[in-house]
Amino acid sequence: MLRLLTALLRSLLKGVHIMSDQPSANNMKNTEKTIVVPLLVIATILAGMLSPMQSAVNGQVGKLLKDGNASAVVSFGSGLVVMAIIILARHSTRKQFASIPGKIAAKKIPWWNWIAGICGAMVVFSEGASASVLGVATFQTTLISGMVISGLLCDRLGIGVPEKQYFNFPRILGALLAIVATVLVVSPNWEAPKVIALAILPFLAGLLAGWQPAGNSAVAQETGSMLVSITWNFIIGFCVLGGVLLVRILMGDVSFSLPTAWWMYLGGPLGLLSIALMALLVRGLGLLLLGLASTAGQLIGSVLIDWLIPQLGAQVYLVTVIGALVALIGAGIAMMPAAKKHVAVDKLEN
């Protein structure tokens, strides 16, 4: 599935704008094909639209089950089933997955990369606990604020990117505009203290989620397969969430029953597709630029969901649309320093 997505991305982008880094006198024999960063930003915006879809589904599951923890277990469980089928169907991925214990013991990459799934678990838990109350747009933009701050710091510290990306005016301004967009979209429903208390949850999740693509990418490089990395991500998240839910059930704090509507199991598959695309794109964009571009997609998707399916989201206000536009402007400003940067096509396959 991921190879198909990669091939499709390559073919589409080749047709639009493929350039050469160093023209060669011998029929460009050693020329490296590259992709202009703005095209990767567009791909990230489209991938970002998957996130509000997942939030809407998980929010409704949480509303039905009346428990964010139970909703998160359903979401991670459905995603894990899909990934298990994909992994077990291929000899190469079965072998790569079986190598994980040895690679963890070898300590070739920092141990925290192996638990990046906890970040996703926090996001999915917050979706089930607050998305149906806050509305999809409000939830997503609060989440985004945390992700932007996290991405800015991770890029500066060189976490998950080939080299440190220093602060400059466009990057800081882009991050500030993303936060302004968050405030604009949240403002119509800013009814303290309930909304403020609920909004803290996705904000904290965003602080963790801003680093998650770097962890997933590191595991993918170590195992040689992004599919294996995503599966491991779901296993970690499911074990953490499932363990907490099991303890709560044994203590009598919660009762658990599976939802009957088929679409309520789409949260996991939507999440894994989002993780795959973000892990694929982070190497070419850096965490901050990835976060800002996905911000635009998330806000556009959130507004569309709240507008077209009001029973899943909330009323769309003028400031909601303005906030989405501000986020788009912020993403554009932040990408200015990298607008002439090129990323090798081959890097997207690793």
Automatic annotation (TrEMBL):
InterPro entries: YdcZ (IPR006750)
Keyword Membrane included in the entry's annotation: yes
Keyword Transmembrane: yes
Any one Pfam family match given in the protein's UniProt record, by short name: DMT_YdcZ
TM ranges: 34-50, 70-89, 109-126, 132-154, 166-186, 192-211, 232-250, 262-282, 287-309, 315-338
Gene Ontology annotations for the cellular component aspect, listed alphabetically: plasma membrane
Keywords, alphabetical: Membrane, Transmembrane, Transmembrane helix
Domain of life: Bacteria
PANTHER family, sorted: INNER MEMBRANE PROTEIN YDCZ
Name of this protein: Inner membrane protein
